[in-house]
Amino acid sequence: MLYWYKFLGVRLFWTIHNIWPHKGRSRWDFFVRKRLLSLCDAAFVLSESSKREAAEVFGVPEDKIVVTPHGHYDDAYPSRGLDIRARFGIPKERFLYLFVGRINRYKGVEQLVSAYRSLEPANAANAALLIAGQADTGYDLGFIGADKAGDEAGAIKLHSSFVDDADLADYLLAADAVVLPYRQITTSGSAILALTFGKPVVAPRLGSLGEYVSDGCGVLYDPDDRDGLRKALQDVMNMDRPKTERRIADKLGELDWDRIADRMLAVYAGRIPQEVNA
C-alpha cells in the first residue's frame, strides 16, 4: 500500500515514538522499520538522541529525521480536588516521592524501593513513597511490603490498581517529586506529565530523558551507578523549589503545542527540515 502511495506521488511521514518495541527487537522489526524509513520523505522523532540512534541503526541521513519534542499536558488532566495524602495517611509535611503508571520489570520499581529504603535516616524520617499503578500479569509486588499506618519514618504506600485518568492530576499535585527509575526508555510521556504539574523528576540518564529533564527540572543519575538512584532521591529533596518551578516553566514553554505544530507544518510544506529541529 505504501509503495502505491509513493507511486501516486503522496508524501509520507512517520513519527517514531520508539526505535524498537518494548517487547524487544527482531529481524522483522529491523526490516520493516528500515524499509518504512526509506519510503518516507521525512521522519519525526521526539529527541536528538532518538534522531542519532535512528540514523545510525537504519542507515539514513540525519537530515531526513526531524526533532519535534513531545508537547506538554497542560489542561489535559483537570483536578477533582481529591486529597491523595489523606487517602493514604501521608502527613502534609512529608516529602512525597511518587511513582505512578503501569508496573513491570523495565519500570525499575524494585530498584526504587531498594534505593528508598537505603535513604539516610534524616531524610527517610521526613519522606514517604507512594507507588500507584496496575502491575503486569504475573509480576509480583510482594517486594514492596507497603506500610499500613501513615506515620512511620520512610513510609511506603501502595495503590496496586489502575489509576483512572480522572484521578491522575490529584496524585501528581500531592507529590513533591516524581520518580521514573526506568531500566529502558526512549521518550517518557510520564516525565513530561510530571513537569506539566510543576514536579521535578528523578530519572536515569537514558534515552531522551536528559533532554526533557534538563538542568533544574529534576535530578538525573547514572543507571550504571548502583548508588545513583539513592543519591538522586536525596538530592531532589534539597532542590530550591522557587528556582525549580521557574526552570520547569521555561521547559514547558519549549514544549508548547503551537510551537511544535509550526515545526511540523514547515516540514510538511517542504521547508528546510534542519531549520525546524528542536
TrEMBL record:
Residues 4-71 form the Glycosyltransferase subfamily 4-like N-terminal domain. InterPro entries: Glyco_trans_1 (IPR001296), Glyco_trans_4-like_N (IPR028098). Residues 84-248 form the Glycosyl transferase family domain. Pfam families: Glyco_transf_4 (PF13439), Glycos_transf_1 (PF00534). Keywords: Glycosyltransferase, Transferase. One of its GO terms (molecular function) is glycosyltransferase activity. Its EC number is 2.4.-.-. This is Glycosyltransferase. The keyword Flavoprotein does not apply. One of its GO terms (biological process) is lipopolysaccharide biosynthetic process. Gene3D superfamilies: Glycogen Phosphorylase B. It comes from Cohnella rhizosphaerae.
